[in-house]
Amino acid sequence: MMVHNPQLSEEYYVSSFISGLGDEIRPMVKMMPSHGETSCESARLQEMIVDAMTKKQRNQTKGVFIGG
């Protein structure tokens, strides 16, 4: 993208990338250094954490009766 739009800065692309992330990982990625490659890696790692936590919650609630 930067080759086709050299007038736009890396900061613009990183900001656009971060704004397109899901609500559950955006704040964590924003806390990290904002460079293209590191932002992508941070997003991948945060997504893995969220997935693991979601899976753990599902496994903990399996077989548990919730309701009246």
Would you tell me the structural class of the helices and strands? Answer: mainly alpha
Computed Rg: 17 Å
Q: Approximately how much beta-strand content do the residues carry?
A: under 5%
Q: Gap between N and C termini, in Å?
A: 55 Å
Number of domains: 1
Spans of at least 5 consecutive residues with low confidence: none
Overall pLDDT level? 84
Determine the number of helices (DSSP H or I, runs of at least 4 residues).
3
Helix fraction? 55-70%
Give the H and E element order. Answer: HHH
Shape: elongated
The major beta sheet can be summarized as:
none
Q: Please count the beta strands (DSSP E, at least 2 residues each).
A: 0
Question: What does this entry look like structurally?
Answer:
The chain is mainly α. It has one domain. Helices cover 62% and strands 0% of the residues. The protein contains 3 helices and no strands. The chain has helices at residues 10-19, 26-31, 36-61. The radius of gyration is 17 Å and the shape is elongated. It starts with 9 loop residues before the first helix and ends in a 7-residue tail after the last helix.
